[in-house]
Amino acid sequence: MSRLHKIIGCDNPERICDVVFVHGARKGPIRSWQARGAGPEDSFPHWLGQDLPSVGLWSLAYESRFFIFQGQRMPLVDQALSALGDLEVEGFGERPIVFVAHSVGGLVVKQLLLHARDPQQPKWTKILEHTKGVVFLSTPHFGFWIPKLLGRIFLQKSALELARDNPQLKSLNEGFRALVKDRKLRVKVYVEGRKSFYGLLYRMQVDKQSANPDINGAQPIPDDDKDHDTICKPESREDKVYKGVKHLVQACINNIFIPYDSANQGEWVRHSGRRSVRVEMRMAHCAATSTVARLEDVDTPVRFYDTSQTASCHGAPSEADIG
């Protein structure tokens, strides 16, 4: 079972993007993103929401228990289906989406997006169509060593699917790589740079090979100051991971779809859900601040998605661009 937690900006009907944080194994939806000693509103997603006030910040919780004595754990496929259901209920699929995933949460996101291709589920395909970027923080794309070490004696059967070199994970990654190429998703990958203790063992929990999904343009970035648990807990806004995630979200909303309302005498207006010409605007300033700019002042290529309406502007498309 999964659940979406509202962090900041989620009830703003005029928000232009949703960012969903997905925690790792044996973690939770809130504290996973807080540095040691941080307060409840002093965390990774809170900072992002404060710096980008037109963005909604969410945190997805799912059953990430490993051990037999902790109760039943759903397989990865079922966890992803449950998460999709939660996204659907909250109305995702109307505005751009960016996922930020730590550890096993990255596998949930990949499986979720592959499920969303189902043509029999139009609301899921809308979620996929509106997904613009994914950030992976020490995700074991090809599994990790802990399930093999502990084995069936201590772990639930469903946790064994996370073992290193599991063919299921390899297939999942191949499907996701194809999806990235097809959907032109922005992907950023961070890798832990320090060893950490797991019981009495001191080693990398996710090695560099497993943390690399082998996606063109997404070279893994090592964070030498962070281990597996702290890579998702930036200590300040100057943290490498925080700045990288913020930059990716800004890059995604630079391509935001903004409706054009002919009743407003040729102005760009922020998304309101009204039936109107849909245009793609590459203007970070307008996307991030919801600033209204007159159509004739926009010095950038514009693509019209509704051929029943016409308009003119500096840099307007040719007939071949309209479709």
Structure overview:
Helices cover 28% and strands 19% of the residues. By secondary structure, the chain is of the alpha/beta class. It folds into two domains: 3-253, 3-Layer(aba) Sandwich (Rossmann fold); 257-321, no CATH class. The longest helix is centred in the middle third of the chain and has 17 residues, at 167-183. The protein is globular and about 50 Å long. Residues 257-323 have low confidence and may be disordered.
The CATH homologous superfamily name of the largest domain equals Alpha/Beta hydrolase fold, catalytic domain
Query: How does the overall form come out from the CA principal axes?
Result: globular
* N-end to C-end Cα span: 41 Å
User: Class by helix and strand content?
Assistant: alpha/beta
Element string (H = helix, E = strand):
EEHEHEHHEHHEEEHEHEEEHE
Poorly predicted runs: 257-323
Rounded to an integer, what's the Rg over CA atoms? 21 Å
CATH topology of the largest domain: Rossmann fold
The average pLDDT value, as a whole number, equals 76
Strand content: 15-25%
Q: Architecture of the largest domain, according to CATH?
A: 3-Layer(aba) Sandwich
Q: Major sheet: size, sense and barrel closure? A: 7 strands, mixed
Helix content: 25-40%
The domain tally reads 2
CATH class of the largest domain: Alpha Beta
In total, the number of strands is: 13
Going across the biggest sheet, name each strand in turn: 1-3-2-4-5-6-9
Tally of helical segments: 9
Helix and strand topology:
Blueprint: E1 3-8, E2 17-22, H1 44-51, E3 55-61, H2 76-89, E4 97-102, H3 105-115, H4 122-130, E5 131-137, H5 146-154, H6 167-183, E6 186-192, E7 196-198, E8 201-203, H7 208-211, E9 221-223, H8 240-253, E10 257-261, E11 267-268, E12 277-280, H9 284-289, E13 303-304
Parallel strand pairs: 2-3, 2-4, 4-5, 5-6, 6-9
Antiparallel strand pairs: 1-3, 7-8, 10-11, 10-12, 12-13
Helix pairs in contact: 2-3, 3-6
